[in-house]
Amino acid sequence: MTDEEKNIFGNQLRERRNELNLTTQKVALDAEVGESTYKRLEAGDGNPRLDTLVRIAKCLKTDLNSVVPQEHLCKDSGIWQIVRKLLSMDKKKMNKAIKAILAMLDAMSDD
């Protein structure tokens, strides 16, 4: 993402958090990220992993596309289908699926 896109993303996170009357501490805790990391994202700094974005979106009771336009996530609709499926899972299943996907990708990159 460009700096401008990161700033837009950060503003969208902040606006949604404020709509829900949540603190940065609460979102960070629920999304399992450090509060300083979350604050940097709201400030338009950082490059979060997809699993982090998914957890933040869930904490903000929204879908990933609401905070990050699809075209910035991927150009391939197959990847977006995976993201939507992950978002439909409960937290435990989602984390398990993300770990499995990352392990599979790591194994494939060793080839």
Automatic annotation (TrEMBL):
Domain HTH cro/C1-type, first and last residues per copy: 13-67
InterPro entries recorded: Cro/C1-type_HTH (IPR001387), Lambda_DNA-bd_dom_sf (IPR010982)
One matching Pfam family: HTH_3
PROSITE patterns from the UniProt entry: HTH_CROC1 (PS50943)
Entry's Gene Ontology molecular function annotations: DNA binding
Protein name: XRE family transcriptional regulator
Protein species of origin: Dorea longicatena
Classification of source organism: Bacteria, Bacillati, Bacillota, Clostridia, Lachnospirales
